[in-house]
Structures
1.
Amino acid sequence: MKRETLQSVLAARRDKRPLALATEVETGEQALVDGEIRTGDLVLAGAALDAVRAALAEDRSGMIETEAGRLFVQVFNPPLRMIIVGAVHIAQALVPMATIAGYDVTVIDPRRAFATDARFPGTTVLTDWPDDAMTGLAPDRRTAIVTLTHDPKIDDPALAVAVRSPAFYIAALGSRRTHAKRVERLAEAGFSDDEIGRIAGPAGLPIGARSPAEIALSVLAECTAALHGVAAR
Amino acid sequence: MAGNDALNADFEQVLEQAARWREAGKGVALATVVTTWGSSPRPVGSQLAVSDSKEMIGSVSGGCIEGAVVLEGLKSIEDGKPRLLDYGVSDDQAWEVGLACGGKVEVYIERVD
């Protein structure tokens, strides 16, 4: 690998820009495909270039057979995102866990007593109202959303944006009773059964979690199952 | 959804460390899992970087073949040639560097120039 290639990959990652690296595994020749731009010593055109672009679009690294040879395509996508609503005790456990698992984490809580740097060192914490903050963050299909306050004033506006976004995982903390009431409120507010049905509630896998760390673990486990399209419960 | 998302954090760490070693004037090789069969412990795209001071970051298995991959990486730093290597239970070297889990992986090793 040329040093410029490595630098380009790292630069794309810093800018959160998707990128594919194609390697001809016999010769070691490489090409970077970054949107419309292709650079590197590996000549890629026609079907081979299309195949690399398809792998990038589908976020699928692997070997492909092309007329340009046997190519390994490595897709570098920006990190997954997790938006956590509620700068509560469970969030203090979930933030580092999700970070280790590779998520770019943002915490939203308009209550400034909770949303302090001291409680969330090094984490992006927004104190806007959740609907504004969520709209600004524009959740995409690589985003997970977890509400933790079980305060309808804070959770509901976030969920209202979440269920109409392509987020791959939406979860709301709260007991079954709390969740049943939440479902009622959202239905009254005009959300469809399909939209409300996207919310995993109560949040997390049933692993008997009690402490904040255990609850964070159960939520991250359920989120992982959703990411990989596995029915975990 | 995508299978390699969870690797993003790893990529960054391994590649950034590889770049730092290069900047410090060290020889560096990068190993990447390019194909897997059966129950291999690390998915396609997993990476390991090795420096000529025998430092290592990342992984391409659950620790089963890292030793062998590091040695091949050091050879790549020497001769500049890329290598495509198979590891698995059906390998001749299975006793020494096979995957205890019964899986098979193909690892691509290249020097960072």
Note: The first strand of chain B starts at residue 28 and ends at 37.
2.
Amino acid sequence: MTDQAVEREVGRRRLRKEDARLITGQTNWTDNIQVAGLLHMAILRSPMAHARVTRVDVSPALDYPNVVAAFSGADLAEGLGSLPCAWPVTEDIVLPGHPPVAVDEVRYAGDPVAVVVARDRYAAADALEAIEVDYDPLPPVLDLEAALAEGSPLVHTDKGTNRCYTWPLATGDSFAAVRDRAEVTLKRRYHQQRLIPNAMEPRAVVVTPIAASGEYTVYSATQIPHILRIMLSTVTGIPEHKLRVIAPDVGGGFGSKLQVYGEEALALAIARRLGRPVKWTESRSEGALATHHGRGMIQDVEIAATREGGLLGLKVDLLADMGAYLMLVTPGIPILGAFMYPGIYKMDAYEFTCTGVFTTRTPTDAYRGAGRPEATFAIERIMDELAAELGLDPVELRRRNWIRHEEFPYTSIAGLTYDSGNYEAATDKALALFGYDDLRAEQHRRNERGDPVRLGIGVSTYTEMCGLAPSRVLRDLRYGAGGWEAASIRMLPTGKVEVVTGTSPHGQGHETCWSQIAADVLGVPFEDVEVVHGDTRAAPQGMDTYGSRSLAVGGEAVHRAAKTVVEKARKIAAHLLEASEQDLEFSDGAFSVKGSPEARRTIQEIAFETFTNHDLPDGVEPTINAEHVVDPENFSYPHGTHLCSVEVDTETGRTRIRSYVCVDDVGRVVNPMIVEGQVHGGLAQGIAQALYEEAVYDDDGNLLSGTLADYLVPSAADLPDFVTDRTETPAVSNALGVKGVGEAGTIASTPAVVNAVVDALRPLGVRDVRMPCSPHRVWQAIQEARSGTAGGTGGTGPAQSGQSGQAARSGELGQYGRPGEEGWA
Amino acid sequence: MTHISVNVDGTTYEDEVEPRLLLAHYLRDRLGLTGTPIGCDTSNCGACTVDLDGTSVKSCSVLAVQADGCAVTTVQGLAKDGEWTALQRAFHEQHGLQCGYCTPGMIMAARDLLRENPRPEADEVRQALEGNLCRCTGYQNIVRAVLAASGPPAHQAAEEVTA
């Protein structure tokens, strides 16, 4: 206990504590849990997008071997409330009820209609086929615009409308006024396709009851054990103190496990009813229907600028697909993006309106980035279009408009105070790493010689609000809780340290990073710190993990709790060293008396002596444990510049990413290895939206891409090596100077890739390619441009129709040649 | 019910199983060898990859009865006396995992690759792992890990020889 850690931990490439169990197969996934008498739950789901359920007879299932019970929605309705929505974004929002099992109407393909419980998972699945259900089909509601039209079929008949809410924001000058004085305006329509999150671990839940005392332990593959506990208590009526929720090892989430799912409530309700432990594990294809989706928006974006490229204003009209029901934060996801459409740019006017629309599809909710990738996509795509209109290099257009580093802190047009950043530095570094000028020269040469494989260069900058969230802001946004995070530090008698966190990691490496933070403040060896999380009994207070919040809020709480430990230890050190507190110095984990360094006690020794001491002075509490709850004063604002080059084969439509460079500024870095890993993974998911993934529905509302054979989660062979680098501008809104990194890669990469694809094809007259930019879509966009009918596949609406033939010719003329006049106001 | 005898990670198990029982479920639910996870139902994700008599297979696509008389190696059988294999060490050192759910399958598939091609190029690693999906890492560090666990790539090795 004498040699203390002297090397700083924060900033060090520490290998992860989490890995040992994961690479040896000793992990504790929820589905691994086996307990005596465990019953397996299987769920019969609606095969139709919309239907009245006129009869459900579960009794034939009971004749199947090893079936213990079967329930219809009506059987379960008593004692099981509606699933919660915690974010009613407007006062007049339409909040439909959401029973965990449908009772009289199903509203999406996959809506549960009955449940079987059996002794093993095969028996439960077998018995589903015996259940008899009569459906009376109703018309599906799939088109966001048609859903809002008079006379549209309704998802929730009793509500009289498919409009969930309309949420407006207008800041600065009026957009109409700046549009009048603008020399250039552009209007575009972008489609954010629905995505299926596909965390590698399917969802699972196990409930173990102690029926006699009414106590329940819920193990769930969740990102939010603390929120889940409260919500399950509300839904089932089981008192919160009788519920313990454990998130064991959780295999990824990306927002999809930031949810209170019907299956969690069902397993609990059925365990209560039967007095037996119950398990449910979704199959991948079941999850494609039943785990919430992400994105799903139509964005109408209008930008106004001067001929020199000075931005004047931005107007965004959003239609957001809620799906059939409002889940935990469904309505709030597009609102998280509302503040990010202006990105890193200065302008005089900003108007935003979002209308949430019910459809007969799987509900949407948070997916990596949650509103912010959509916002960044819209602004960064239209910035490229504006650059093309003005004949400016897209980087130069951005440079003319972004907030300069000396202007921080800067209050954005949307009202956020960006605390720090240096967009120039990140961009310059990225351009150099990318070899931007050389690539532009090569592009020019290839265009001139009419190379059938075109080179495209895509740029995206971004900032994002992360570190969710200052509670006052959440109040203003009508969110149902605060945005704080808790940590406590237990100094064990032997000097070992337990850091108890309210964050709930599922791949992020909190055990490693929180150890680094605590080790530095306490001056103890990294190895002496253990991080406790994901169990409401062991870590009772928390707001959990999502929204790139864990480090900026939860890590900050660890930091402050550790500081308090040191201050409490100082009192006891003063007693032990017979000195006054003012005369003590604390460094490298030890207190010493100024001027007599031989008189010292390490904090680990003090932990032991606090345990054994019999004669602390009056008023000195015999503990140096501490806890802290942080409510962040501001969001944090990572930023960066991403550059992508693609080669697009104009004969096959195939896109290959040739190089990808990103320079991100995520503030101070606790562990560069983990930061790099987060960026890599984020890039992969953002690129996946740009090129590969889409939840495809047919006209009847059936999900066609419901398995991993149909839904293209990219493999190693589909992705390039990334060049990642950083600049480091510390956040000033927290003591650690950290920002957040979990979502950055996803936010920036989608527009960088699509901008590159469009840049490659712009000389051919292509103005947009709708995501995912599959070979088919790209090829079709090229054919339409050639035949002068561009617009359909591109999906940019009226702005793209018309003069593509001419566009192609003028586009061939120069490096940044204007592709036509049709976008001019 | 069918009688099977399967050696898994060095232990021989005798069991009566339903003919339709998947090897993955046999390992997990019957033997309690939960180190091999299941990630999909269409054999696309590869999380459940194990070694069956020297070939990597997706254990969700093999029936337990097909493993009768065979030797199965899972990720739980790799380390000897607590000593990790080079691949396991490399995944740790190169940060080739985040949530870790795909990791057992990745390691088993990479092990199969290195058996056939001890010194692969990065592209060969990417192609070989095409049947194993990871949602966290973007694959770059997985590729690094596999390369680190292998010898130097063939062309470099040749240069070393000629130099």
Note: The mean pLDDT of chain A is 94.
3.
Amino acid sequence: MEHYTMNLTLKVWKQKNAKERGRFETYQVKNVSSEMSFLEMFDVLNEQLIAEGKEPIAFDHDCREGICGMCSMYINGRAHGPWHHTTTCQLHMREYKDGDTIVVEPWRASAFPVIKDLVVDRQSFDRIIQAGGYVSVNTGNAVDANALPIEKHMADEAFASAACIGCGACVAACPNASAMLFVSAKVSHLAMLPQGSPERKERVTNMINQMDKEGFGSCTNIGACEAECPKGISLENIARLNREYIGAMFDGGSQNAK
Amino acid sequence: MALNSKIPAGSLEEKWEKYKSTCKLVNPANKRQLEVIIIGTGLAGASAAASLGELGYKVKTFCFQDSPRRAHSIAAQGGINAAKNYQNDGDSTYRLFYDTVKGGDYRAREANVYRLASVSANIIDQCVAQGVPFAREYGGLLSNRSFGGTQVQRTFYAAGQTGQQLLIGAYQALERQVALGNVTQYSRHEMLDVVMIDGKARGVIVRNLVTGELERHFGHAVLLCSGGYGNVFYLSTNAMGSNVTAAWKAHKKGAYFGNPCYTQIHPTCIPVSGDHQSKLTLMSESLRNDGRIWVPKAKGDNRKPNDIPEEERDYYLERRYPAFGNLVPRDVASRAAKERCDAGYGVGASKQAVYLDYASAIQRYGKIEVNKQGLSNADADTITKLGKEVVKEKYGNLFEMYEKITGENPYEVPMRIYPAVHYTMGGLWVDYELQTTVPGLYALGEANFSDHGANRLGASALMQGLADGYFVIPYTLGNYLADDIRTKSIPTDHPAFVEAEKAVSDRINQLMNIKGTESVESFHKRLGKIMWDKCGMARNEKGLKEAIAEIQALRKEFWSNVRIPGDVNEYNPELDKANRVADFIELGELMCIDALNRNESCGGHFREEFQTEDGEALRQDDKYMYVAAWEYKGESNFELHKEDLNYEVVHPSARSYK
């Protein structure tokens, strides 16, 4: 792969904390290598800012290998930037050329308040899981793992849903800031497995209720979530969630629904 | 203080069973009065929090990430070992135990390893019950793959995302306990000290990373599940935030540090591409199942890999280790790669890389697929196409990741790989009950030193984290807390809390007031370079002595010239990092001291002075068959305590994979 360097203009959202108003700030970054990751380009910029006695840009990141779900930049109008099925940390600078201008914003949703600059608070996702995104099995209660065979295609589909990394790109991409793809991936993962089946009705009801309580918007079948999801979580999950939800409703919700 | 490992009496098979049936219990009403603090929410922390919450203890968890689900256990790719013997290929608890002890180069505690092997099967059962979607065969039963250092197939996996699926399982169990009110979780909080009262750990000081406020939390016991310290090398496969701070604070409060020099260098990582590099990315060891590792037979061969004919390639692992071939343990594979590159046979622009080649696996799988589908006259293209499909199903996500990072297509061109720091076998010294030398302070998972000796086998980290959290600590913690049921919660205005918080606050202010000229990152890079060059894959006396002097000088410079922008009372990642790097610097010195003390080569610790004629590690069992547990005595002052390792069942021999 041909290596080259470039100079870039960055327009980055700066916001001191949740209370103060934010604004775009413009930065020049020089000698960016095409082999850098997008976040390494931010590292270089931050080192430059520290050297100049300015404040660096706060952004979330941790594993830098596309699996922890912590990185969360909205790049030129797209959650996690232009590459398909790719988190921000795996986006590499060979996507850009000398002289480009890149606009970087945080996830925007009222259920994800800004903490600082590009960092947002996603604890609403934890609370949705707390509402029912689990199988109620205490440690030590398990039967032998092979006691219950599961058809391979069901196991594979459950895995595909379980691949969600909880980054929130679906919410950021959605004009309604809906969390339906996230919620449906968890509902599907557990509903497709026999272990998750006994609680499926309460689960879907309670998770949807919590999602609404957190202030996420409604799903209007736009599909931006699927298009921007770095893990390829499919819209079929939302269809499955709707079936689960209607099933639960016909059953009078559920006795244990909160 | 003499080390007491508290290994129960009896035969290896009986020890844990006996312990479980005789340890003290806490009744349910008393559990509700007992508070437990858990630092870190990876596999060890989340599984411990969920299990202890289920039992009725009042648990608080803390993690520096924005959610417990982000902990770096999530990045483990290949799998988790368990002695299920579902493949009928001769596996057993004893074999898993034996492989682990041998893989650790006879530097692990037999009793701990046997317990680990014996609960391994329960872990798989538990995870399946939680809905962890492990890979399955067409008959609906669980699938297994092989891993380095073993000759059976005992590794359970979920594509290349096993760690993620296991962590999500543990996280969901944890969130359930949060919903039930048994666990309170604190995200974006970092532990900055242990609070000691009457010689026992009784709480922690944490910093709320969003507001910068310091908080005091009381606990009848404190569990450190804060992971390993590979980031001391700056470049490693660890997450950017992974750090030693919690363990190091505990060390300074009296917890001995065990075998700090045992570092695992993982053989299959994507090579460094430049100075801007912030971290290294691992390619799962499972790739060595089907990939073949080679370098050109001729020095400085600059041809493209596909232009080098078969007979001019050196499959050096297959050549040197015919019995295990490409599946030798990690330490052996890493050193062999370094040996070839140092000798001038490396490939790629940096010459610090070797090839991991899938061409023959693609052909092999293609032919099997052709037979399966009954295509008797399949041409070469069809075979290749079908073979690629099989490889894609097994390793697709890893291949995609490689392509994103390097811009090269690994289905067509062999991958370039090089070893990188991955895991630390060393950690806080713990006894059989996972208690450190500080009463009431426990260490679980990678944060402790206990089960992997001098080298960890692949797919055993996930196993250990979950074994400690789900199946060990629920018993051993009860045994301690049973004597604590009359201890009321201690109010956090107790002088010990006030004093500990003041010390933390003073240190933060001291850091902020240095107002020097060099960034935290730059100090971290410099530390990493010293560690990698002189305390990395190969070490020697001269280099280690130099490293110690260089690190001491670096520490002085750090404390007089670091520049931290921003304020104390706000979200300030540079300050968080400065706190961590300051601790890494101190740890780095101890690692070098430990490496210098250990005049032998074993597992991941390779001292150049101690090798066989053909370059294999040479142990000195008569002198060093002990755990080096270091006590903190003050700046640059550590006292060595030894725990002798007694092998009652396994007979240590020269480890051979030939």
Note: Residues 572 and 608 of chain B are 42 Å apart (CA to CA).
